[in-house]
Amino acid sequence: MEAYWRSIILFGRNVASYKFALAKSLLELGSREQELIRLEDLAQPFARNVCRHLERHPKQGTSPSSKFLDACRDFTQGKITESDLIGQTAKLGFVNVIDAFHVVNQGEIPKRFFVDERKQSAGIRLTDDFFKMFEKGHTGDLGEEVEARWRLVEAAWNLGVSRNLVSIHHDDKVNELFAGPNNRRISVTSSRGALNGYQRGRCFYCFDRISILTGDARLSDVDHFFPHILKAEIPNSHLDGIWNLVLACKDRNRGHDGKFAKVPSTRLLARLHTRNEFLIESHHPLRETLMRQTGTRENERKSFLQTQYNQAREKLIHTWQPILRSEPVF
Ligand SMILES: [Zn+2]
Ligand 1 centroid vs 28 CA: distance in angstroms? Predict the structure, then answer.
């Protein structure tokens, strides 16, 4: 079920952020273990999430006007009360998103997280499959991923296909992605949240379980595939760019037999290429960034990676191949 959930959150073009607001609301309400959720109850977390994002990013979609977003703006400016906002949200906020939520690439996915009961009981009914996802206890990570994807989409809307996108980069100290030049950089989102969807909660190298929640014992490292000590040696390669970032368990990254500053094997290089191609094909919000940093066409990107590999081998000599901890999942 997590795979279907991720396909909803991670795939496809986004014309508005409602899908993310609904996803976050479902994860919040799911812990109540209550099947029927009336639209008024759904409206509360839904509107709260949208209002919070509107404060950071006034643009929440590609359409020029929305009565629902106007109501959210009115609320944050104190022009209407919270109960007005809930009423407006129940009436206007769910018009398309409830129908569209399970649609991925023009088709409905075969499982449902809720059924539409707006006609019968003025709400939606969460399914057993939805609750199964909760039993596994990974919903904290899923919530982080929704938030990260929402922020990436906002960044893409704000920046457009502009030159700023080329400089989206990761900062080791705070584990966040930033856009823009160093002196005026803008925080985009947590790097872990942005990377975990593709890896499905698994280490890039050994497939062991990882977490993206601060405080969790399995909290992952954000790892530079080509070690960042190469920055001075191979400049202009954007080693802090998303193309070179993966999530790794701490053991594989810096434990016994860990990677440290070794060069990953060619098998791992192929895995990285597959990952980057997947992000590009799935219309990842950082698609343009990836293409600007590594090449417009697939063969260019392949040879870009090979060039980095050759340069890295020349400088660092040793290659590294991890012991697998679990079955490969990507
Ligand atoms: Zn690992």
Answer: 30
